């Protein structure tokens, strides 16, 4: 595989993206990146302090503040928190609020509710959204992808009641499903119903003049129906990785075989590699592909066949240095159903949303010691006969669950769990007006 280009602009943007990366698996205080904060992490922090090395996840909040250096004081806080199993913030933890996209039961309409992370106070926003809408934070900017039927990309001003900054059409038959900002004037938008990965200029403003600047043709990588079902993306060291689901549109979107990961050079906009995945139907309610920079891994979830096969699929890892699959993190068989979403907290712990044969939804925790020895489910945190639509986790270790339960006596909302203890932190679901569909964290 080709060596990576390195220019200062790309590196600077890479740092920016890392600071806001919605899919980065990182917990404050977790020095060895195993997804748990233990006394050994405090010892590693002490070693980092002595060696004057800086890691924003080890520069922990003391008295509510971080100080820009890793010191023995940080190590002491991490030791105390490890022993008491509590949550704490750090310099990596830039998010202060959750933006929840809500949707009516029929997905005919939706809205936005903001939740302050510190107080969990929820405020409904005036913005009304299309029903099939998902949020993304890229380069610190808040976007809505108004998907099937609406076919446009919207940017919001999160500091002004989520007012629309622009809403630009991509054209009929596109179905935008993910966005990755590369620079102030360039972003990629994956289009589920098209063969073309769109290149857009997110600086054009409300006129939308010149929004679509180009595209990358991916028809050559499609299955027999001609559409590759491009889905989630991530930018790593100048390479854009995009997952192709390869589903058969003439047979109810059944998988035609394992998915493919395509690598695109974001400088030349050319395909420079493909990786055959182990599992079929790479899909998940993740915000882009999950990337763990410290383990140089992408984590890709695949439910395989929905409903008819509950044990295929799982989560697999791909090494971003060798571009090779390194095996299952956990299998669908172990998860016991169709996996619809997951988060990793460190390189060997995660959480998934699983639907079983009775369409019962579960939020489960799993451990995976190594990628070559697939992991096991360690706990079930929540269950419902209705839909759990999304989970996301903050660097503080708070897991947000969008619970769309709506039966007599059981009304959903946003529920928050500690990834330190797996305990639910909310005593009742947070009311978001319409039921929550998707959540992202932002500054
Ligand atoms: Ca650890
Ligand atoms: Ca510090
Ligand atoms: Ca297809
Ligand atoms: Ca998610």
In short:
The chain is 9% helix and 44% strand.
Describe the protein's topology:
Blueprint: H1 8-20, H2 39-50, H3 72-84, E1 97-103, E2 109-116, E3 122-130, E4 133-138, E5 141-146, E6 152-157, E7 163-169, E8 176-183, E9 186-191, E10 196-200, E11 212-217, E12 230-236, E13 239-244, E14 247-248, E15 254-255, E16 258-265, E17 270-280, E18 290-292, E19 297-302, E20 314-319, E21 325-331, H4 332-335, E22 338-344, E23 349-355, E24 361-367, E25 376-384, E26 388-393, E27 398-407, E28 410-418, E29 435-442
Antiparallel strand pairs: 1-2, 1-29, 2-3, 4-5, 5-6, 6-7, 8-9, 9-10, 10-11, 12-13, 13-16, 14-15, 16-17, 18-19, 19-20, 20-21, 22-23, 23-24, 24-25, 26-27, 27-28
Helix pairs in contact: 2-3
Bound molecules: calcium ion (CA) (4 copies).
Name the descriptors.
binds calcium ion, four-stranded antiparallel β-sheet, single chain, mainly beta, 443 residues, disordered N terminus
């Amino acid at each position: 595989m080709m060596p990576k280009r390195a220019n200062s602009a790309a590196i600077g943007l890479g740092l920016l993206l890392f600071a806001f990366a919605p899919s980065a698996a990182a917990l404050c205080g977790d020095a060895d990146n195993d997804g748990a904060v233990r006394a050994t992490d405090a010892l590693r922090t002490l070693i980092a302090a002595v060696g004057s090395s800086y890691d924003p996840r080890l520069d922990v909040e003391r008295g509510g503040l971080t100080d820009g250096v890793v010191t023995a004081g940080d190590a002491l806080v991490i030791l105390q928190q490890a022993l008491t199993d509590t949550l704490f913030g750090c310099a990596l933890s830039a998010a202060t609020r959750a933006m929840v996209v809500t949707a009516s039961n029929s997905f005919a309409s939706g809205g936005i509710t903001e939740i302050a992370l510190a107080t969990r106070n929820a405020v409904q926003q005036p913005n009304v959204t299309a029903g099939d809408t998902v949020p993304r934070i890229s380069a610190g900017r808040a976007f809505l992808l108004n998907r099937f039927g609406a076919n446009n990309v919207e940017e919001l001003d999160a500091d002004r009641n989520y007012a629309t900054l622009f809403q630009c059409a991509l054209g009929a038959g596109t179905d935008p499903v993910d966005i990755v900002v590369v620079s102030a004037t360039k972003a990629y938008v994956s289009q589920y119903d098209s063969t073309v990965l769109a290149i857009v200029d997110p600086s054009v403003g409300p006129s939308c003049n010149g929004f679509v600047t180009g595209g990358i043709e991916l028809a050559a990588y499609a299955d027999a129906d001609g559409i590759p079902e491009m889905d989630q993306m991530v930018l790593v060291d100048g390479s854009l990785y995009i997952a192709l689901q390869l589903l058969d549109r003439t047979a109810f979107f059944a998988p035609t075989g394992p998915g493919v990961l395509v690598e695109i050079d974001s400088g030349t906009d050319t395909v420079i590699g493909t990786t055959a995945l182990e599992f079929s139907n790479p899909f998940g309610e993740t915000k882009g592909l999950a990337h763990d920079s410290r383990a140089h891994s992408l984590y890709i979830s695949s439910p395989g066949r929905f409903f008819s096969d509950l044990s295929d699929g799982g989560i697999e890892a791909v090494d971003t240095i060798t571009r090779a699959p390194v095996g299952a993190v956990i299998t669908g068989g172990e998860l016991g159903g169709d996996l619809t979403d997951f988060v990793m907290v460190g390189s060997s712990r995660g959480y998934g949303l699983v639907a079983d044969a009775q369409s019962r939804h579960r939020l489960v925790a799993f451990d995976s010691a190594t990628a070559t020895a697939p992991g096991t489910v360690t706990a079930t945190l929540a269950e419902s006969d209705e839909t759990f639509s999304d989970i996301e986790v903050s660097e503080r270790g708070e897991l947000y669950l969008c619970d769309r339960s709506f039966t007599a006596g059981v009304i959903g909302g946003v529920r928050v769990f500690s990834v330190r203890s797996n305990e639910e932190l909310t005593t009742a679901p947070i009311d978001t007006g319409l039921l929550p569909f998707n959540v992202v964290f932002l500054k």
